[in-house]
């Protein structure tokens, strides 16, 4: 019997000409947002206080942008980095051009911006990824550029 283990991509497998679509999407609920916001000790009324938020420019609570970012990156793991990443090196850019609301579905995709072998860590490479999150209407709600250290194929 042949055994196949789910894993992310080795450094060599990242394709700079591809856009990786991460499916399924994730519908963000009120419970998700309140739990994430309170777990991370973010007391921002814009995420927790429905009455106060109703009087603000968007007229309702917003999904915590860090939850949007975490979900965008997290949705890429199984397809791109599960078991092949060495480290998340950092984020160059994070933007939230439009809000995400309770009940919106977040769909994420990733484009490889660059990749190079590590000069100091043999058998590993640096891959720069651009994650984009869109709501169910296709509106971009988040963009993040991050660098990762990834294992080369054994």
From TrEMBL:
Residue ranges occupied by any MaoC-like domain in the UniProt entry: 18-133
Superkingdom: Bacteria
SUPFAM superfamilies: Thioesterase/thiol ester dehydrase-isomerase
Pfam assignment, any one: MaoC_dehydratas
Family: Belongs to the enoyl-CoA hydratase/isomerase family.
Protein name: Acyl dehydratase
Native species: Homoserinimonas aerilata
